[in-house]
Structures are given as C-alpha cells and as structure tokens.
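Today's session is about reading a structure prediction critically. Students often jump straight to the picture, but the first step is always the sequence itself: look for stretches that repeat, for charged clusters, for runs of hydrophobic residues. Only then move on to the predicted structure, which in these notes is written as discrete structure tokens rather than atom positions. Here is the chain we will use throughout the hour.
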Amino acid sequence: MDKFLEKAKNLVAKMTPEEKCSQLKYDSPAISRLGIPAYNWWNEGLHGVARAGTATMFPQAIGLAATFDDALMEKVGEVISIEARAKYNYASAQGDRDIYKGLTLWSPNVNIFRDPRWGRGHETYGEDPYLTSVLGLNFVKGIQGDGEYLRAAACAKHFAVHSGPEAVRHEFNAEVSEKDLHETYLYAFEKLVKSGVEGIMGAYNCVNGEPACANSELMDILYDKWGFDGYFTSDCWAIADFHTYHGFTETAPESAAVAVKAGCDINCGNTYIHLMKAYDEGLITEEEIDRAVIKAMRTRLRLGMGAETEYDNIPFSAIDCKEHNDLSLQAAEKSMVLLKDDGILPLDRNKIKSIGVIGPNADSRAALYGNYNGTASRYITFLEGVQDSFDGRVYYSEGCHLYKDKVEGLALPQDRISEAVAAAEISDVVILCLGLDASLEGEEGDAGNAYASGDKADLRLPESQRYLLKTILDLGKPTVVVLASGSSLNIEDNRANAIIQAWYPGSKGGKALAEIIFGDVSPSGKLPVTFYQKAEKLPDFCDYSMSRRTYRYTRDNILYPFGFGLTYSDFTLDISRADMDEPAFYFRISNNGKYDSGEVVQIYIKDETQAFAEPFPRLCGFKRVFVRAGEYEDIRVELSEDCFTSVNDKGKRVSAGKKYTFYCGFSQPDKLSAELTGEMPLIFNAEI
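Below is the predicted structure for this chain, in token form.
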C-alpha cells in the first residue's frame, strides 16, 4: 500500500458519515479537528491558469495541437502548474480557498473533435486519437511533475464519447459502436490513465443509454481494465441530469447514491448534498461512501495536504513572468498555419510604405482568448503586432461587426464599409482579420450565437464578414486573410493572396502574427483537424459513428487536409533506416530554402491485411524539428506502440496484420495534400 493511500484510509476512518459526505462536493468544507482545510476542487488550466486573475495566457488548446510539439506541451503544462501552485501558495496563506484557487486543474480536454460544428472543439487537441494522446500525455507530465508530490493534478475530460451538440448535452444519448468507442473515443483516455493522470472528469451525456458519470461499461473499463487509481469528478451539475433530464433515476438522493456507487467521487454541482439522505434511506452504504472519500483524500495528500512540499516556496513573482510569456510567444509562433501563399508572404518591409489592417478581429482581444482563459497583464492584438513591427503607415478599420450588420446601433447596415474601403485603397497591402471568437463558438450558455448553444450552424463566416471580404477583394489589392477561430472555416472566396489560420493564439498572438507576416519567423503549424468545404455534406451532428468523419474515414468534402501547413522554406526528407523492432524511423531532413524554419515530419501507416482496419492511413509518428537554411538534421521518429494493431468490430485491439505501408513526409498521403504542397511522401513497405 502506498503511503498516501494508507494515510487517506486512516483519515477517513476518523470521520463521521456527515463529514465523509461533505468531502465529496467540489467545495469541500474544513474538518478542523482532523487538520483538513477547506478545499475547492474546481480549477481550470486549459491554456493557462483560468479565472483566477493574472496568469500567462497560451494559445488555445487547438492552437497548441497545431504545433505538433510534444516537448513544448510538457513545458506549457509545467508553466501552468507552477503558476497554479504560486497562486495556491499566496491564496491559502491568506485563508482564500475559493473556486479556481486549488491545485486540481480540470484539464486537458482529450475529447475527439469529430465534427467541426462543435463549439467546444477548440478546447481539444483535434480529431486524431494518437496526436491527442501524445500531446495530452506530455501536458499531464508537465502539470504533475515528477517529484514526491504532485505539483498540480491534471484531469482528463470528458469521459467519454462527448463532442456535442451543446444545446442538448444534458439529455443527449451518444450511441457508439464498440469499434469506434475503443479505436477513437477512449484511445487518449487510456494512454493518459496508464501514464498516471490523477483525475478523470465524466461527461454530461448518456453513452449507449447510461449516463457517462455512472456508466457501467465505461467505469468497468476505467477501473477494472485500466486500473485507474486517481479521483473521478462529474462535469458540473451532470449528476442532477440523472433525474432531471436522463430519467435514469427519480430523485436527487438516488442520483447521488448511483453516482458514488458507480465510481464518481467528486460532484461538481450540488447533488451530493443529498448523499447523507441517501445513506439514511439505505440507498448507499458507508463502505461505498468510504471508497470515494479515500480516493479524494489520497489525491489531496498527493498534492501535499498537511505536509511540506518542494513547491511551497514558489513565489508570486513566478506568475506572468518574462520566461513564461516568452514560451507563450514561442507557442503562438509554432501554432499558426499557413494555408495559402501565392508568393506575397513574407512581406518585405523595404518595399511597402503602408498597410491596411482591417476587420473585426484586427484589434480584438477576444480573438486572442479562446475560452477557459486567464487574464494576461498585456495583450498584443493583430493590429498592435503589425504596428509594433512596421515603421511605415498602418491604417486601421474595424470593417464590420463580428456578426451583426452594423457596429453602431443607430447606424445603417454596413456602417464601417466605407472606412474599410478607404483604408484599403490607400494601402499597399491589406491584412484582413476575420473569423470568430468564443462568443460564437464555445460552451452551452457561454456563447451568444443564434441558439445560445455554442455550436456553429455551418462553416461560413458571419454574413457581415462575408460582405466585408468580398468588398475588399473586389478592390484588387494584395490581401492576406488572417483567420482567428478554433475550428474549421471556409471563407469561400479564394481570391486572397495568402491565408493564415491563427487560431486563438494567446496574449502574444499579435506579435507572433507580425513576425510571420514579415518573415522574422517562418510559419510551421499543421492542421490538427480537417477543414471541410460544406457543413451540409457532413453526417448528422448527432451521429457519433466515425464513418465519413475525419481524415481517417473520409476523402470527400475536404478544403484543407489534416496535417497540412506550409512554410517559407523548402525541405526534403530521406530515410536513413527503419527499425521495425523499436519501432522507429531514422531520417535526414534538409532545409534547402532561404529561411530558417520549423517543420513537422509525419509518418502514417496503412494496414494492408485486415479488412476492419481504418480505410485510410493513420498517423503513427511525428516529430517537430527546426533546421536552419542550408543545413540538415538527423532525427529519430518513434512510432506508436499500437502502430501494428487495429481495432476490430468487437472493440478488440488485435495485432493480426502482416503487411503494412508507411508514408513519411510533411503531410498526410492524400491527393489533395500532394496538390497543395507539390510533394509526395516517401513510401516504405514492411512485413511483420
């Protein structure tokens, strides 16, 4: 028995039933006689410590995913946990144990971004299970550290089969096959659990007829098959859905009892205030309550409750420091994806005298945030980034409202168009900043779109922006379109000279954009999601089958492929050797261009034997590398431990394949990627 478990059992043995029940609500009160301080389990750290004042703000999770950089993810996690610990230190020293001041960070979100309409997709690492697992695992390593105590506790969410629709999430039943469940929806969770993630958060919806927070199949997989030994928390107020929406139970006490007995330890919400009543009514035993309380206490002890830890002296000054903000800038630089460039980029400062920076996201801080965000001490918008980096004249116009037909309430529609045209006409180059923000795509109730659900109706820009885009492009000025969004968009008008997908790039996003536009930094991000042409051609939003979804299961309706992203340089890749026993590939990557640049080596595998394998090659290895112009690097790319396996229709992962084809390059091996990049991947055949 580990020392934390033993201590937890001893503590719980001294508690009364009432005290035990009190410790399972997210805002757990103090038990002074046992030396247990009050604790609020609810804290957020998706891309920086959120909702607790000043903190370093990194790019939104989907932007971090676009870096394809596992080492960066660990550093980001480390910074977030250092700042969370610093906040905990000063807050608790002053008796402040409020929400968002604890050490249990409810991140990362490793749900699969299966449909581009899902409003919360930008909280995830994209559509690929393997990429999600690698990035999530390294983020967790950074959060939790490798000391005797956890620096902070990461929490993988939302377990499981959860990715919209937001509007009906409280009553929705996600129906999923065993193959899709194990191949896609559970893959990253399993990797994180087996690597020691401390927390798991359940989802709102039902999965195949049972609520996720008390789902017998999911809990059996989590505890019995994977051996999870951390704590399990509900999503917020999800236990109340059992009786209010799902019809799974009839009363709050019954819901509380069912959830705890199933393995849900902490209630984010208030249903567990009925747990004592459930105990009095014989719906749950004290022993069953004990199991949950012991797990909760063990996590708190692992975080250092009642002990001195190596993190107690992390100072206030660690928060929002220069080193952390430099990392945020680096992440933003690596995250932006160059989708199109006819040669206009990078701009030569010596050849242009004026730039028009136009659009509703040009000077928008909200376009930097994403959601679940903290507060930076300084923001650099896209406009400010260009102004700081260019000595010539910068003309600015908002151009239009983000989604309304006018900026000023008393004005006529399109009240900023004349100004935008004037600014564009007098400028040598236009940088047109369009897209969304978290008020249009996000969580149910948080976003203010037509349905207040957070999900997108389609993949188009809002009508006000479509009008602005056409008006500016009709002028014939050299134009760079910059898209801030957390998901797939189609601007539909392809006349722009260049398109940059900037995501929600964090507080330093404007500086990163300017560096890329002027060639101080080469773009090197890759799409972690497929950009589709039309929403109407997608499967029904409520259909959780992976058929015709993501790069692994479709080649139709694609605008820009998963894994795609241009740089300013020209790279070649050579296979030095392949070792199928490790398994790993050894490459020489050469930068034959004029720009120092990052690039992402990507390896895809196709099982040529099994009929039940994915129909198209899947990502099984990747490595980000930086190579200076005219130089080369010799690198090793490790392959997934599961690369020679496939999941059959019964949900079993088997290794019965014999012939495999590997595709090695800088994008996935599809026809559209080849057309967009002008490159074909290297092919390597293996028999196992």
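Discussion point for the tutorial: The radius of gyration is 25 Å.
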